[in-house]
From TrEMBL:
Provenance organism: Streptomyces sirii
Listed Gene3D superfamilies: Medium-chain alcohol dehydrogenases, catalytic domain, NAD(P)-binding Rossmann-like Domain
CDD domains, sorted: MDR_like_2
UniProt KW keywords: Oxidoreductase
MF terms (GO), sorted A to Z: oxidoreductase activity
Full protein name: NADP-dependent oxidoreductase
Lineage: superkingdom: Bacteria
Organism taxonomic ancestry: Bacteria, Bacillati, Actinomycetota, Actinomycetes, Kitasatosporales
Enzyme class of the recorded protein, top EC level: oxidoreductase
Amino acid sequence: MKAISASSYGGPEVLAYSDLPDPKVAPDSVLIRVKAAGVNPVDWKIVAGYLDPIMNSHFPLIPGWDVSGVVEAVGADATEYAIGDEVMGYVRKDEVQHGTFAELVSAPVRTLARKPAALGWQQAAGLPLAGLTAYQSIKRVGTKAGETALVHAAAGGVGSLAVQILVAQGTRVVGTASESNHDFLRSLGAEPVTYGDGLADRVRALAPEGVDVALDFVGGGAVDVSQELLKDRGRVVSVADGEVTAKGGHMVWVRPNADDLAALGALADSGKLTVPVDAVFPLSEAAEAFRRSMAGRSRGKIVLEVS
């Protein structure tokens, strides 16, 4: 199969497009013919070696955890799926080596859900990691209908999905973004505010009594400014601030969860969730996709088109 791989840690320049052996299929897994693979910041961080202290990596290393595609073979005990099924998945395994930036990937069934009919291959590939991050963050702080949520980096890949999930459940959303993304946030149902100095005052102008929950998808000082605005300082969740638990909030490291992924698929099929796609690259140009992700200015998802 054709795949993107790295033979050592490094930047985008270490990525190679070449032939590698087809993956083996474990009893609880299926083999997927990949249609598209989502690109996330964690992918280039893995290749750079940033996750080496917490996850074992093996070379050659195929990056990528997001996928959409068609089941081509079924493991001996993977009774949930059949050949020809269209699926999407957050295929994070215990060790890093056999990722989704390839024509074929072996995926445990616990990482998969059926592809929503309402989403194309590229959108479905962009949903799993970012959508699960948003969904599990919202569950962690127990956001309810009628409450007000502050979403940091609301126009990004995770933030834009969090906004839609919150709006779908009846939560009022105030979202931070650059001025150029304000109309985009309004189209998703959020009330935009510009990030940066004076953010707390701008949020108070919209929500004088403060906010009920805050979701930090950017890091920096987002948790600190959120706690100035929260009615309960503990109802803040972050995916980027390693000190958030010490500050009384919650940390989320997204987990593969078939039920959560299926719930996101149901939201998409109901018309309440779509996946904004920022850019699409052919598989062979994964290095350019990494560079775009590393720039940190994407509005929505970056996707590799594989087949």
